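WP5 quarterly update. Target: Solute carrier family 22 member 7. Source organism: Platysteira castanea. Length: 526 aa.
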Amino acid sequence: MKFEDLLLEIGGFGRFQILILAVLCLLRINLPMHFLLHNFLAATPSHHCAIPHQEAFVNLTTEEVLLVSIPRKPDGTFSSCEMFSQPQFHLLLNSSLQPENKSIIQHCQHGWVYDHSQFTSTISTQWDLVCEQRGLNQATATFFFIGVTMGAMVFGYLSDRFGRKTMLQLSLVCSVVFGMLSAASVSYTMLAITRTLTGVALSGLSLIVLPLGMEWVDVQHRTFTGILTSIFWSVGNMLLALAAYLVREWHWLLVAVTGPCLLSIVCLWWVPESARWLIAKGKVKQAHRHLLTCARINGRKDFAVSPEVRNLYAQRIVLQREYKNLGGTYSYISLFRTPVLRKISLCSGVVWFGVAFSYYGMSMNLTGFGLSIYLSQFVFGVIEIPAKMAMYVVVNRVGRRQSQAWTLILTGLCIGANVVIPKPFTSLRSVVAIMGKGFSEAAFTTVYLYTSELYPTILRQNGMGYTSFMARLGGSLAPLVFLLDEVWRSLPEVTYCGVAACSGAVAFLLPETLNARLPEGIEDVE
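Structure tokens (predicted):
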């Protein structure tokens, strides 16, 4: 008797599972509000060099002061990072005559002046993370995702060893603590450290929510569970746009996006531990108590411990003891010990890297489409919902493997298309970008569902931890790729395009899991 048969006896998708999913979906809203916060936390408004001795220009307008003090770029706009060493008053007579003597142009000497019409303050304006310091600004997102990367390995292992719910509670408490410390940062170093630790903490939330939900539902509702929890990522995406629009000061914005974690801690109290995990670990009494609760809430009051159920419990305990007697331990090394698991782990690692790399590459580039940064963020969140609903049908008709591969390839094609579409065609570029964002989110939705079905219960969180590590590695590198525009303006987009297409091709090497039972042990996979 398999665990799925047991779920059918107690109700594989009843009121009990709906209540669990409702709480887990609320928890998932927290994630994008931090994962995509960099768009607003580190936004760089229009700026130019601060001009000293303003009293010498009392008879000039603001535009004329800029004209004699700041050189123009080839497109006619004022430079953000350079100034004249001496005022060039002759430009008042003919502004088109830009000085040919480059020696009178220097880097900003007295700081910068920022346009505060859109943002009251960001970390860019707080610590002047512009021009030569631009790399530090982008690195803020990288530090966060490095934290998520480290957390993926830690929480993946710990949740397989100590349980899903315990680690989820620890993740939320740490998220609140480090999130609030980030808001209170008094230096860039303090912010970088606390954002990294916030990433570590939130990684547990990212990693555990979906598998915990899926381990309580039957085979027929696994796809629905994956899509539903994923839709609430998009809800969080839209709420981030609203929060950033209402709160324009970066300290209070951090407080606003961290606050919901407190509510999540309260809501999580009701969610039970995974009975599937408890049985796999030999904790039969606890598992049976949760199963009885599930049966009672689902109206299956006649559920009892039949001989088949006892055999299931005994089977899991025996398998666990046999594995330990052979000297084995369930760790990340176990993902690469056997041939089929090794192939799954290598290929899924590449796919996750490509999914995250292209997704965050698109999500952190909200300019150049003719929309405000807030509207772009909101539209990108809205378009994800129909993309996910479409995937609910597609993954059940076409299968997981084909869906994963083609959504990634189409994401790459959309990114590549915007490389060749001229900048003035803002409407066309917006449509292509929104389509690409939809395909990218469809790929992310599929990969969460797909991966949780590929790994056995005893290694599922280790598998999710490893693949999440690869994803966060992609997420860490994605913001830094924007700096390649100094080499060639389109090089970042070309890089995102190539990685998405190649990782999509690798997805064809994975096995299909449509309508397959969740594997319990390594022997089920092999």
